[in-house]
Amino acid sequence: MTDILRIFFIIILLTIALAAYFLVIGALFSSRMMKTRRVISQMPGRAFGVGFVNFMFFGVILIILFTLADGNANRVSSVIRGILLIPTLTLAALLSAVLSFGLAGIANILGERIFPESNALKRNIYGTVALSFACALPGVGWFLLFPYLGFIGIGAFILGLFQRENI
Questions:
Q1: Distance between CA atoms of residues 61 and 93, nearest Å
Q2: Residue 104 pLDDT > 80, yes or no?
Q3: How far apart are CA 76 and CA 78, in angstroms?
Q4: What is the mean pLDDT of residues 35-49?
Q5: Residues 11, 17, 18, CA angle at the centre, nearest 5°?
Q6: Cα–Cα distance between 70 and 77 in angstroms, integer?
Q7: DSSP annotation of 71
Q8: H helix or E strand, kind and range, residue 106
Q9: Distance, CA of 5 to CA of 40 (rounded, Å)
């Protein structure tokens, strides 16, 4: 019983931290967030396709690089492992940053659609809480909802990079 309470407490603390992280991303990179939100709202299907293809492409590259940099499975010297580890960790950090921008945009839109009468700060917090609790649902949240939203978020960020500014 204490394990369940401990896990629930950890999920609540991580949700609070994630809400703060999404608020900071939205405040520091407001123009990038607006582009990501616009793409999510206007073309979620296209964003899903672009996100799926890019995640699979970079995911395969990451798996190959992590396998080569492991060194235990193959007889690779420590110098080569160190050299391979730098682009591997850089690519993993880049993919994580793109995913976090996309999920922040999704949480913002979710809060806007669920709580339209609240101010922007509360909408973002409520959207993050709803998103994280929905994705914490065993089975459906882990293997269906989170990958779906992650692919949309990655694709929306990438499509937002190539979107022209309307002046």
A1: 13
A2: yes
A3: 7
A4: 95
A5: 85
A6: 10
A7: -
A8: helix 78-114
A9: 35
